[in-house]
From TrEMBL:
<dbReference type="InterPro" id="IPR027417">
    <property type="entry name" value="P-loop_NTPase"/>
</dbReference>
<keyword id="KW-0547">Nucleotide-binding</keyword>
<dbReference type="InterPro" id="IPR050166">
    <property type="entry name" value="ABC_transporter_ATP-bind"/>
</dbReference>
<protein>
    <submittedName>
        <fullName>ABC transporter related protein</fullName>
    </submittedName>
</protein>
<dbReference type="GO" id="GO:0005524">
    <property type="term" value="F:ATP binding"/>
</dbReference>
<keyword id="KW-0813">Transport</keyword>
<dbReference type="InterPro" id="IPR003439">
    <property type="entry name" value="ABC_transporter-like_ATP-bd"/>
</dbReference>
<dbReference type="InterPro" id="IPR003593">
    <property type="entry name" value="AAA+_ATPase"/>
</dbReference>
<keyword id="KW-0614">Plasmid</keyword>
<dbReference type="GO" id="GO:0016887">
    <property type="term" value="F:ATP hydrolysis activity"/>
</dbReference>
<dbReference type="Pfam" id="PF00005">
    <property type="entry name" value="ABC_tran"/>
</dbReference>
<keyword id="KW-0067">ATP-binding</keyword>
Amino acid sequence: MTATPPPLISFRHTAKHFPGPDGGFTALGGVDLHIAEGEFTVLVGPSGCGKSTLLGIAAGLVEPTGGEVRIDGRPVHGPGPDRGVVFQQYALFPWLTVRGNVEFGLRTAKVPRAERRRRAQYFIDLVGLSDTADALPKTLSGGMKQRCAIARAYAADPRILLMDEPFGALDSLTRSQLQARLLEIWERERRTVLFVTHDVDEAVYLATRVVVMAARPGRVHRAIDIDLPSPRTPAVRLTERFTALRTEVWRAVHEQEPRTAPSMDRKH
Ligand SMILES: Nc1ncnc2c1ncn2[C@@H]1O[C@H](COP(=O)(O)OP(=O)(O)OP(=O)(O)O)[C@@H](O)[C@H]1O
């Protein structure tokens, strides 16, 4: 009998209360979530349910006020090279070229020049930016900037990629192209990914497991395994299984809405 490997990321009763007038606001009421190495976990849920806060806690950018998160058994108390982060508006260094941006983490980690070049080039090629490796960010489209941000995160060789709506600001065609590219990279590299999105279709297409969160306070509502074939191609979206899973996730997101919800966008 083989023993189940311990989870790489473990949220245990993870809570976050933001102090403020009128008692403040409890963004996360106690999240229990365990993520195995190599999984692609996508968090979805109504606006304000704490997806970004949970990701920020895993990144070590937000300190929980209750419970904890452990990476490989060790409690997280700050950012670390084991975790790469990609945000919706990723601030590339404007004075560095694509190559300079992708090499940045390797330079900080004092990786020797030849190895740095080789690793950066590998990920620049993988995200399809070979022709613009010497361009500055201001000359790139939004999709190209995000590809650069993804290459930069991967090149630093983290065990975990934390992505907060990385394609949220892109048009739908660019978005679906980048989803396919990200899946290809994930299939090759098998890094553990924790990804936040509002988009149910994107969640089902990318994930090995979709975690649906509920709000007020933020918590895990349901976890749904995505048993689509691997490797996935964009055509999987046309299958009955994809449609069934998308319906299941959509229902899980919407069944928890209060009937009198004033607006999906309201934060408090
Ligand atoms: N620094 C802060 N101070 C006070 N409240 C905060 C702070 N950061 C987040 N919140 C509140 O915590 C709740 C969760 O926010 P969070 O951004 O994690 O939600 P989300 O699910 O990612 O939302 P969205 O889908 O709209 O991006 C929200 O109600 C938000 O207003």
